[in-house]
Each structure stands twice: as C-alpha cells, then as structure tokens.
Amino acid sequence: MSQGAIASVVRTSPITPHAVTHAAADAAADAAAAGDANAVDDGAAAGAAAAGAADADAAVAERGRTVHVIDGTNKMLLPGMVNAHTHSIEAWGRGGIMPLPLELWVNSLFTHMDPRGPNPNASPDVVYWAALHTAIETIMTGGTAVMDHLYIRDLSDLEAAVRAYKQVGIRAFIAPMLGDLDVSNYFPLVPDACERNERAREEGLCPGAMGPDGFFREQLAERQEENTERVLSLWREAAQKFHDPAGGINIVIGPVQNWGASEELIRRAVEIRKDFSLCGHIHLLESRMQKLQSRSRYPDGGCVKLLKDIGWLSLPGTSCAHCVWLEDEEQAIMAECGAVAVHNPVSNLRLGSGIAPIRDYLDKGISVAIGCDGQCSNDSQDMLEAVKLACIVNPLTTPEYRRWLSPREVLKMATEGGAAALGMRGKAGRSGPAMWRMLCWLT
User: Fold this and answer.
1) Number of other residues whose CB lies within 10 A of the CB of residue 113
2) Do residues 270 and 340 both lie within one domain?
3) pLDDT of 251
4) Residue 195 is part of which domain span?
5) Which residue, of 77, 107, 136, 274, has the fewest CB within 10 Å?
6) Region 409-435: what's the mean pLDDT?
7) Does 274 share its domain with 398?
8) 440, 72 contact by CB (below 8 A)
9) From CA 323, how far away is CA 163, in angstroms rounded?
C-alpha cells in the first residue's frame, strides 16, 4: 500500500457544504479550479479555500450558510481516482496463484482457488468481507469509486456487496459478472483435436486434456436457453432492486467476455441497459490467445465489430477491461462508439498478457481509465501503484520518448478517464462547477 494516501468521498449536500483551507491544489486538474467557489457541486464550497484562501468562511459567506471547514495543511487535494476494473471476491485468493499466462491462470482460479472461499456453499458473508476489503484499500490509496466485476451466485451475494460498499461510503458500480456458456469455452480448441484423440485411443493413452475422460475437446459447448434466461433475469432483478445512484450504488450489466457470454445474451443485455439506463462492462481482448480466437470465432470482423453491430459498444457508459490487443480498425470502432478502454497494467504484466498501446488509443480519441484488476492477479487494490506502473511501463511500447505518457496524462486517465468509464463523462473526475465532487487527500 502506498504510504500516506488517504481518500474520502464528498457527496453533494445542501445541508453540510464543505470548504478546504491551506491544501495544495491538484496541479493536474484544471487551473481554473483554484478560483472556483463551488466545492462539492451545487451549493457546496471549497475552490478558493482549496487554493489556500485565508478565511474559508469568507469564501462562502455570500451563500449565507454554515460551512464545515477541513484543514488541508500539508495535504494535496486531488480529484478522486476510479478503480475502473476489479473483482472484489478475489480478495480471498490474494497471493494464492503464481504468475501464469491468462488461460492457465484462469484454470487455476476455477480449479484450485474458488474465489468464494474454501467452501463453494459459503454464505454471502464471504462476498461482504471481500467487498469491504476492496473498498477500504481502494479508498486508502486515492480511489473514490470502484467498478466491481463481481461473480455472484444469486441476489443474496449482490446484497452483501451492496451492504459493504454502503458501509464504507465509496461510490460503487457493481457489474454482476455472468455468462450463459460453459466455462470451458474460455479455453481455445486444439485444431487437430480429433486426430490427437484418435491416436491416443489407438495407443491406449490419456492425453490429460480438458475434455471428457481427459481427452481433447472437439467442439465448443453450445448455449443453453435456460442459462441465458437465468442470467437475464438476474441482471434485471438486480437493477430493479439495487440500482440507486443517489445512494452511491449503481448496477452495471457485466457479461464476462465474448467467450463466456453468447451473442444472444449480449444482444438482449443491450435492451436491459436501455430499459434502466445502465452502464455496461466487459472483458475485451486481454491476451494473445483471445486475439487469435477473436478472428477464428468471428470471421466477419472479430469480437469488437460484433459488439458494435449488436449495439453494446455505442451505449453511454460502456467500458471494456484490458483492451491489450486491439488492432487499428478495432481501435477506430472503440473511438467511434465512445467506449472506454480500462488499462490494468499490473495484472497484464503479472500474467504476461502484454502492454496495451495506450498512446495510440489516446491519439485516436479513445478514453482510457485505470483499474487494479482482482487480487488474484494483482495482490492489492493500490490505485497509486496502478497509476505509477501505467506511467513507467509505457516507454517499453516505443523508443520514441516524445510519445511516452506523462504523469499528468496518467493521472487524468485515473480521474477523468475513470469518470467516463462510469458513464459520468464531463460530470466528474476534475475540478470545476457542476461536477460530482469525489475528492481524495494525499498526505
């Protein structure tokens, strides 16, 4: 955990406006913020005081209300960062899986490190404690909002996560991570599976593969309609029961990825998003293997074009985790649709997935956010660590130093880019009037 980082969520309130004295203003935020008298949105106050005004009360006296003054001596005031992609339930497996390529890592996650804890029938309390841990560590390292791509068994798991996030006070965007295809579809088929199986049977050997009786799978698992209906029903019920933006809880529709969620499921999920005005979150082209599968499974243009064609990418508040292997035409689609790429540098390095070409994305107009990813592939929820690594790993993508990301650009990704990933583009992530004020201290 980064030393001395303390964050807090400041919400709009007509009763208890806040002012900050003697704090160093964020150099990466808009310079105009130094003279802004709107601290926490309409009716709250800070701006001039945040820049070091001698009398915070005087800065808001014209509003005729008592102001709660916070002493910012020896602290830096920043827009709150957004942990734009994580899996809170993985807190139970922190440090439990060695670095492996993504596909082997996923197999270890499913077979040896059940993210719900040692007992698959454990109570929803395991979800509560994992979410609580994720929220606290995110806040302690400068984050004021989190996108939790959360595997749930049923609504009781979701209720447990909601309870934890409300208790901490962080703004939570919870995306139940669901799919209607068998998990084996995550792993690619061996092109010559039939020949290998036949040869193994002739020799009386077991290949030790992932198919029945240890043989190679010869085809992908087919979609079962009842699975599709169950997932859609769970998403819809989640939105109806728990979506409460004013209370800090936002339900997000979160298909796991193209390999685990069928085209039919994602197409119908688009309608749920429209019905409830919900954000959407999905894994996208994280590894080299997924890049190869994208073209083979979707020969008409790959999975990015598919997500565009069925209407997923163009809906407001769409974010895609990882995006390490986007080709030029796929980058153009992301920019055209306004979808946000969520950069997860720690997990991408730990699993050898690659380094996303973030400079190319920014040049093409793609908004980029930063996430920590789950603790089974990161071992922490340290936002400052993720921001630092996003900055210092980028030079490995090009020898042209003029194209390296600056600390200011990366901080902007973690704040403004994070806000865009939450469907709050232009409404949060920086200082200014009419902004949702999610602020953090650095001490």
Assistant:
1) 17
2) yes
3) 99
4) 190-221
5) 274
6) 82
7) yes
8) no
9) 31
Q: Which amino acid is at 207?
A: P
Tokens describing residue 134: 């994720």
Question: Looking at the predicted structure, is the pLDDT value of residue 442 above 90?
Answer: no
In a domain, residue 437? The reply is no
**Residue among 356, 360, 334 nearest 345 (CA):** 356
Task: Please give the DSSP secondary-structure letter assigned to residue 205.
Answer: -
CA angle, corner 391, sides to 390 and 392, nearest 5?
Answer: 100
Write the CATH number for 176. 3.20.20.140
Q: Using CA atoms, how far apart are residues 373 and 281, in angstroms rounded to an integer?
A: 13
List strands edge to edge, sheet with 76-79: 5-7, 439-442, 76-79, 24-25
422 belongs to a structural domain: no
Nearest to 36 by CA among 408, 435, 438, 418: 435
pLDDT in tens, 66-95: 667 777 788 888 889 999 999 999 999 888
Predicted TM-score of the model (pTM) = 0.85
> What's the structural domain count of the chain?
3
- What is the average per-residue pLDDT within 246-255? 97
Judge whether residue 51 has pLDDT over 50.
Answer: no
Q: Each residue of 12-49: pLDDT tens digit?
A: 444 455 556 655 555 434 433 333 333 333 333 344 34
